[in-house]
Request: fold
Amino acid sequence: MIRKFSEMFEITELRQRIGFTVLLLIVYRIGSHITTPGVDVSALAEFFSRGGGGVLGLYDYFVGGNLSNATIFALGIMPNISASIILQLLQPVIPYLERLSKEGEEGRRRINQYTRYLTVGLALFQAFGISIFLEQLGVVSNAGFGFRALTMITMTAGTIFVMWLGEQITERGIGNGISLIIFIGIIARFPTDIVNTVRAVFVAETLNIFVGTFLLATMIAVTALTILMTQGQRRIPVQYARRIVGRKMLSGRNTHLPLRINTAGVIPIVFAQSIIVLPSSMAEFMRGNPIAQDVAFVLRPGGWVYTTLYAVTILFFTYFYTAIVFNPMDIAENMRKNGGFIPGIRAGKSTADFIDRVLSRITLPGALFLMFIAVLPDLLIRKAGVPFYFGGTGLLIVVGVALDTLQQIESHLLMRHYDGFLKKGRLRGRSGL
Reply:
């Protein structure tokens, strides 16, 4: 394995791509230490350390602590991801966007342009909301219109710059730039978490060494299960008949249609978290309202009502998002046009119904796995006393991005007649963020 990693740097283009990616990620981390003017960072960090923020605390996790430190990258790349998801969900609803999605490279370019415009709008709106929130916390030295305008300009510019960094990494580096930026923000917390765990075991003795060993084995097993579920797929055999196209005779071939167990990726957890923590976030703004405080208490993290609603919401969004991004009728129609069929299944609607039935069945274990991963951090933190966040969306993103990046590196190696990372088979990336 060490020899295979050393082979990466023997290829000039691959070495340059890896170096370029590392350089831009370092630039991103440097920007993560530049504070937005006019904010008392120590008071804000103290608020987040007490578990405050609700949905903002979740947001801060994905932007690598930039929000709790009020940096110029406080919004991170999340407005761009939100814009991409919104346009993706609107494609089946708006005929114009649906036509663009089927027009190849030109259509994708237009959709990407609309995504950038929507990103700027969302970033301005979110930056304005954060400026109001900071003023209400009392961590702003000179509150007012000037601070709000400066915060909106600074954070929106930071988001645009981070978006540009992601696009440059995707084009000239290795891996998906946006995913890598989220990835580096999540793993930036790892050194602190490791130090806190070692201190809890050997210094404070709040965590038993045997319990710590068991937790380490559990984390390794959960990570392996996450990799298995991320790469898991059901392959439906497909045959293409011999046919004539123009003056050419195309021979028949046997292939397969891969259906992923976790087609929706991390999106169901993101949607469910955003909805389930909304009451507690609203209660932060309505501290004098007893009804809001009662609702926030009932839906407090770790409670059985919170956990149940969280799991059910994840189950719903898993099926909902899978139905949005994967259309069995389109797959069946494309197969019919190209002379393909599933053995024993009639072409057309019967094929679409068969694919939909198989997809619905394999989505259930994927949804149950997402439910388990989502509630795992609460169980470890509140029940086992683990001093760090493990599981949830962060684990899925880290595993998925690592697999995607390794798969791209392996493709470069195989293209130049090097062996890949695996002796048998190929690495497969995930379906998406």
About this structure: The radius of gyration is 24 Å. The mean pLDDT is 80. The first helix runs from residue 2 to 8.
